[in-house]
């Protein structure tokens, strides 16, 4: 049987195949010997006997996240709110950098558009070259468009507390995902232990919540890759006078010129500059 690990608890892995059949599995000893730990999202081959499964092989992972530990994510849906809480551009940009540096396609989703206009925020990220979608979990507006963007894919939802990820996930799956919902109390200091789980969606896809995704391990990103994580800055850099321009203090910088002309958002440039200087201050790992 071939399938995907959609949940793992206490050393047991739960695998679902394309027909929706599910089986509880253990990993064979060879994985421990090779120091390979199965991950949620892994595509696996399972040997099933008497209703119980044994994972015999793991397909090569397309993508891999460390926090949370999930494999083969196709899309990260970065959820912000138009209001309550007010959008935090710096945090959105950090999550975009996290997606870009892990080779995962990001989508910016602006929720709570029933409370405030999202056109300015949407323009910033569309201008940066990202797919964006404005939705309201309260009214259902825009949710069908979001569904179409993630149909048939494994989509991770990321965002700070209170932006409405849980409500969106419930609308997308048709089920209340209490086990997969981030407690809004986490941001206020209360620790909550929970497992990561993939939930099936229409069209053969899966969704999951990703607590911890906003934490960027900046030392893991090469300095020269910071620019590549800001597509509009990377594109503009070809017009700079100096090759290898950092877009900080160099003369004749095309990026800074576009910022001055408001063709690159000031908030995006500030995020780039902050992350670049933060990374530059870190020692290279040997």
Automatic annotation (TrEMBL):
Zn(2+) binds at residues 240, 245, 247, 253. GO terms for cellular component: cytoplasm. CDD domains: S1_YloQ_GTPase, YjeQ_EngC. Binds 1 zinc ion per subunit. It is found in: Cytoplasm. Signal peptide: none annotated. The keyword Signal does not apply. One of its GO terms (molecular function) is metal ion binding. Residues 71-214 form the EngC GTPase domain. GO terms for biological process: ribosomal small subunit biogenesis. Its EC number is 3.6.1.-. GTP binds at residues 111-114, 159-167. Keywords: Cytoplasm, GTP-binding, Hydrolase, Metal-binding, Nucleotide-binding, Ribosome biogenesis, RNA-binding, rRNA-binding, Zinc. Pfam families: RsgA_GTPase, RsgA_N. Its cofactor is Zn(2+). Residues 62-216 form the CP-type G domain. InterPro entries: G_CP_dom, NA-bd_OB-fold, P-loop_NTPase, Ribosome_biogen_GTPase_RsgA, RsgA_GTPase_dom, RsgA_N. The keyword Cytoplasm applies. It comes from the Bacteria. Belongs to the TRAFAC class YlqF/YawG GTPase family. RsgA subfamily. Monomer. Associates with 30S ribosomal subunit, binds 16S rRNA. One of several proteins that assist in the late maturation steps of the functional core of the 30S ribosomal subunit. Helps release RbfA from mature subunits. May play a role in the assembly of ribosomal proteins into the subunit. Circularly permuted GTPase that catalyzes slow GTP hydrolysis, GTPase activity is stimulated by the 30S ribosomal subunit. HAMAP family: GTPase_RsgA. This is Small ribosomal subunit biogenesis GTPase RsgA. The lineage of its organism: Bacteria, Bacillati, Bacillota, Clostridia, Candidatus Ornithomonoglobus.
